[in-house]
């Protein structure tokens, strides 16, 4: 979209299907449309009936953007409230850890005892790179 707007010139018209997906937020959309207006480019949204050439189109444009921002803000508030309630009940986000602290200690003990990471990875069904991250190789000199 940014690339398209940079090549548009006076007299061109940007036509979209729906207005509420045009910008990240109201301010972003308003700045984009200000840029279009300064370039002499008209904007129309087919499903929303917005045509910035007309006063009613500009009015509808602002109302639709405001409603979309309001809906987005409500959704964010609900999400944050839900996460706070879950935290207060002792739940934290994300999936449960695949391995307990005890299992990690067992893996570390096997590696310390001389077992290869590949062997430990096969036994515990864990990625080799995960073992290297969790138990880095120490004492190796590099050039």
Automatic annotation (TrEMBL):
Biological process according to GO: DNA integration
Name of one Pfam family that matches: Resolvase
Limits of the Resolvase/invertase-type recombinase catalytic domain: 1-90
Entry annotated with the keyword Transferase: no
Alphabetical keyword list: DNA integration, DNA recombination, DNA-binding
Superkingdom of source: Bacteria
A single MF term (Gene Ontology): DNA binding
Family to which the UniProt record says this protein belongs: Belongs to the site-specific recombinase resolvase family.
Annotated protein name in UniProt: Recombinase family protein
């Amino acid at each position: 979209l940014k690339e398209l707007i940079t090549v548009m010139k006076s007299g061109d018209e940007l036509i979209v299907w729906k207005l509420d997906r045009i910008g990240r937020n109201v301010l972003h959309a308003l700045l984009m449309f200000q840029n279009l207006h300064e370039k002499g480019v008209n904007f129309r949204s087919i499903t929303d009936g917005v045509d910035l050439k007309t006063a009613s189109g500009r009015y509808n444009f602002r109302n639709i953007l405001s409603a979309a921002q309001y809906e987005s803000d409500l959704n964010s508030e609900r999400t944050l409230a839900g996460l706070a309630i879950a935290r207060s009940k002792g739940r934290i986000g994300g999936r449960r850890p695949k391995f307990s602290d005890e299992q990690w200690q067992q893996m570390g003990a096997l590696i310390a005892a001389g077992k290869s990471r590949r062997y430990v990875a096969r036994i515990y069904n864990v990625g080799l790179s995960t073992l290297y991250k969790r138990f880095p190789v120490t004492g190796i000199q590099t050039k």
